[in-house]
Amino acid sequence: MKRLYTSFGRVAVVMLVPLALVLGFTEPDFPDRLVERLRAFNVAYPKEKVYLQTDRPYYTVGETIWLKGYLFDGPEHLADSVSKVLYVDLVQLESRNVVVHRILQAANGYAVGDIALGDSLAAGNYMLRAYTGWMRNFSEDYYFTKPLTLLRTDAEPAQVTTNRPSGPQPDVQFFPEGGQLVNGLEGRVAFKVVSPAGKGLDASGFVLSSAGDTVTGFSTKHLGMGYFSFQPVAGYTYTAFLKLADETTHKYPLPEARPEGYTLLVDNITNRDNVRAYVKNNKPASVQGRFTMMVQSRGRVVQVVQGEVGKKAIVMQIPRQLLPEGISQITLFDETNQPVCERLFFAEKKERLTVQLKPSKPAFRPREKIQVDISVTDAAGKPVKANLSLAATDAGQVLEKEPYKADLVSYLLLDSDLKGTIEQPGYYFDANNKERTTDLDVLMMTQGWRRFVWKDVLQDTHPAPKYPIEEGLSITGRVIRPNQKAPGVVNLTFFVAQPDSTRDVFMGESDENGRFSALGLQFGDSTKVMIQGVIGKNNRNLEIKLDDWFSPTLQLTQIPYNPLVFQRDELADYLKRTKEYLEIEQQIRKNREIMLKEVTVRKKREAPSDSRKIYGQASNTLKVDQTMVAGGMNVLDLLRGRIPGVSVTGSAMNPTVQIRGSANFSGVVEPLFTLDGTPVDKQSIVSIPIFDVDYIDVLKGANAAIFGSRAGGGVIAIYTKRGSPNYDFSNEKSPGTLVVTLPGFRAAREFYAPRYDENKPEQVRPDYRPTLHWAPMIQTDDDGKAQVSFFASDARSSVRVMAEGATTAGQPGVGRAVFDVK
């Protein structure tokens, strides 16, 4: 490592340089282990991020939430094409219950869906949360969450209280920079003052020592946050006295200072090229060795450097060009290799997309066609391909109540790496806010970050995660004996009846403990599944239990801010229009329910068709009943003496089957065997339980020609009861069988909006849609261009359009536009 020490008072300067050079100079053991353990930890537990865009922030019961999910990998923010399943929950905050659970199919990092709000839902405050199956291995703090408000047209708008503390005492927290105060060393203390509702409060105050001396004064800078500097002295304690805007005063003890240790101060403001980290310690002269400082961003190592404990004050410079955009973390390890100080800082690179939304006209007439041209460019002004979602709303009904609300940019670069809720996250990305850089640095000193703890990282081995990365839906569970003991290996057959009437059959086996898993499945919502277990040849004395994977739980809810506080008449127009629209929709549905006169239809009964067949008429068919099953060893035993021209000889485990005339110079030519329409080998047929068979078709000569040369010896086609498209799994009562209805992928509905360039009867009704258009999958071309069009409603109001999206390389962007309908 190249070191540069210069005279700067009593402060030594260390320039951080690329990692390979750093590790070439520093002590090899701990830095090498630190980097390797962090790399291994991130390989074992790769991170994912999820974001949801919705069409608006509040809804009326009876309406639909239109949404799109974006999936990103954690370190690089690339579009996540690994996880193919996205879970979305609608949570009622007052009861903390999941009232709606959706499973959406993701492809190439995107998932489109909707939630119809049923009439049974109560008005109040709700939260949308979204996560992948893999994210369930980690804290729920890093699930995506978004506050929503539900209203009812039959009740006054009311705010349902969340479980926040109440009372006059504000919540005040003090955060020594780096994590600790040390006697004799000057340090900074950040603080945050919030109301019982979680909003930042303006305040001022002073710090008093236990000797009665005023040490320093302070005041909040932005949204209840600020900081002050002071040097604690051994033998004294310190108390902060806080004065609020209502003139009330409150006092709080400051964190106790340590007698000896390290302090870490970060300057992310004054130098354009470097971030400066000031490290001080008051260790006794007898303590020798080196401390280590690591800089990492989202699990990627940026820099590692060591310093001598004997140097009591050192400043280390981190070149900004080496930092990715977003949050980075500095961790200081002492001479015993224990983490003692941490500090977050934000590196702004302005690598975001510019999304321009340009309407074809400055103003439109009611019901006129609106065209919006979309242009997306990168930070260098070059056009790029991006995938976007766009919502257009009536600004007169959908009010912008929350200033600087979260969007894809603020979430991806800020919220997703921090614990707790950030008030007005968009503020820190608005270039018009001159103080946003310093305010963002104070936020970094007060907001919690715990993607991992170093104790877990530094372990030599990492336990296997409980939940896999899902490339499809999963069915997992366990087979046990009635006495609750492990059965050993169990043969399993899965029958899946899709809502669209298609059937899937697949087989597998459990492990020695009876555990099984079927992964990567594709099926729709409310799919009926039957699982059948067999030990040995025909032992079904078993019980099958599924894991409780599909029932969403809520262990710890991150309560978001409750920003939507409405005045009495603000929503009067919206509620009136929505009530009229829902009443019209209800009447239309009633009008469609026309009672038909009784009609008698006579038709000659036809033989029921079986979709499993690709042929027409069989040469012979054997319908299997209970009288045939007794005494039979396998399915082929059923054919002995029952089908003319079919000979079954040999042992029960290795029979030989011949259809008359099927032979050549080499001997017997056995028939082709099929199971529920799929060609299988003879051994698979022999292993089928007899009582599962519905009927057997035998195809001879020309009847078997459709199967080609494979059917030179004819065809024996076995059809099972459970494979039949008409079979009802719920009637299955046999031992070793479980029949359940499982939630699957929710099919995405298409957003409906009227087209006023076409004459349709329903267009005579009034049109006051709050959401005029929702387009979840907009793809710009090579020139970064796209176009959307929709029709204005009857409202003479403003239309607010918002588009969010990202490139596959993870560059996010947000565009907004407002225009009038006159």
UniProtKB/TrEMBL annotation:
| PANTHER family, A to Z | HEMOGLOBIN AND HEMOGLOBIN-HAPTOGLOBIN-BINDING PROTEIN 1-RELATED, TONB-DEPENDENT OUTER MEMBRANE RECEPTOR
The main place the protein resides is: membrane
Q: Where does the TonB-dependent receptor plug domain lie?
A: 619-715
- Look up and give the membrane topology term: Multi-pass membrane protein
**Any idea which UniProt keywords this protein has?**
Cell outer membrane, Membrane, Receptor, Signal, Transmembrane, Transmembrane beta strand, Transport
Question: What positions belong to coiled-coil segments?
Answer: none
Name of this protein: TonB-dependent receptor plug domain-containing protein
Q: Which InterPro entries match?
A: Plug_dom, Plug_dom_sf, TonB-dep_rcpt-like
| Superkingdom of the source species | Bacteria
Q: Which family does it belong to?
A: Belongs to the TonB-dependent receptor family.
Q: Which Pfam families match?
A: Plug
Organism the protein comes from: Larkinella insperata
